[in-house]
């Protein structure tokens, strides 16, 4: 089974404006949608569209948290805890026909150790060999820098469990030290400009340090993928972009799907790129259609080293 863990989920409100956001002006939206959001939840949505089950694990609070849980439970099996105070955040995504998306993300609740420990215990007791845990996104405010590292070490105590990490800043650095099975940073999260050769070098260093696979995304500039069996790179396929929010989560879903299916590294990378590209064509954080993902996977330009 695949489990996605989102400690700071959200309700994503997506607005579409014709010419992109115009600061200081009245912006009229011609379309709006509301979706369960947060990086791990986006991963689960993409897995579902590919026909793969997952269990959504979240921490919520307040009235918005109740609304989010209600929506999630119509689509997924959910493991949840309720934080003692605060309110689950609402994130605003404003997309224009120029392909530019502006994100306005709320902060959400503060870290509560007892709640996180409870969620970790419930999830760890369910894990068995072959399961995959995806840890995604920024944790609640005030979380210790080693929060994800501790989760990774806990879940790895069950032999054969693969942990995928997608986060940033100090949480990424501490998490890498705990040696997850795979990581999916961006160049920015690695402290570098988008550069194919530089990204390949950095991904190789991460793999040499004990992480099995590293996928570095570079948005419109493509991505690179490294593992013990080689390194791969790909430029992005040009498509009509509706919203870029969630494209990285689609790539993470590709990793989870591929590991669960036992796919080869090049096939894994191709699927990750296809999912991200198809996701860019959709509205808000709505997942793409599987048929479109498969169409794109046939034309993704992969270069191996």
Sheet of most strands = 10 strands, mixed
CATH topology-level fold name? UDP-N-acetylmuramoyl-L-alanine:D-glutamate ligase
The CATH superfamily appears as Ribokinase
Note the quaternary state here. single chain
Structure class: alpha/beta
Provide the low-confidence segments as ranges.
none
Radius of gyration using CA atoms only: 18 Å
Which outline best applies? globular
Strand content: 25-35%
Order of H and E elements: EEEHEHEEEHEHEHEHEEEHHHE
- CATH 2nd-level architecture: 3-Layer(aba) Sandwich
**What is the straight-line distance between the termini?**
32 Å
**Any idea how many domains?**
1
Helix content: 25-40%
User: Quick one: CATH class?
Assistant: Alpha Beta
Strand order of the largest sheet: 5-4-1-8-9-10-11-12-13-14
- Per DSSP E runs of 2 or more residues, the count of β-strands stands at 14
- Which whole number gives the mean pLDDT? 91
Number of separate helices:
9
């Amino acid at each position: 089974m695949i489990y996605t863990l989102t400690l700071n989920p959200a309700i994503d409100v997506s607005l579409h404006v014709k010419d992109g956001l115009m600061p200081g002006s009245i912006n009229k939206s011609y379309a709006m949608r509301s979706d369960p959001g947060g990086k791990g939840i986006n991963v689960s949505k993409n897995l579902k569209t590919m026909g793969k089950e997952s269990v959504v694990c979240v921490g919520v609070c307040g009235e918005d948290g109740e609304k989010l849980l209600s929506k999630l439970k119509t689509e997924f099996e959910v493991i949840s805890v309720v934080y003692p105070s605060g309110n689950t955040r609402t994130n605003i995504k404003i997309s224009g026909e120029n392909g530019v998306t502006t994100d306005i993300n709320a902060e959400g609740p503060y870290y509560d150790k007892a709640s996180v420990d409870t969620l970790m215990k419930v999830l760890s007791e369910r894990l068995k060999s072959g399961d995959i845990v995806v840890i995604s996104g920024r944790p609640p405010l005030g979380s210790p820098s080693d929060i994800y590292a501790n989760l990774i070490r806990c879940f790895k105590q069950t032999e054969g469990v693969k942990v995928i990490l997608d986060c940033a800043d100090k949480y990424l650095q501490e998490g890498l030290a705990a040696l997850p099975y795979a990581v999916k940073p961006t160049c920015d999260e690695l402290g570098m400009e988008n550069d194919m050769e530089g990204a390949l070098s950095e991904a190789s260093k991460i793999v040499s340090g004990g992480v099995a696979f590293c996928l570095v995304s570079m948005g419109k500039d493509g991505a690179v993928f490294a593992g013990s069996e080689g390194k791969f790179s790909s430029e992005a396929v040009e498509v009509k972009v509706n919203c870029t929010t969630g494209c990285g989560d689609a790539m993470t879903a590709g990793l989870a799907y591929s590991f669960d299916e036992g796919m080869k590294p090049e096939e894994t990378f191709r699927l990750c790129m296809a999912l991200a590209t198809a996701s860019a064509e959709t509205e808000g954080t709505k997942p793409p259609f599987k048929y479109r993902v498969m169409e794109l996977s046939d034309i993704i330009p992969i270069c191996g080293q």
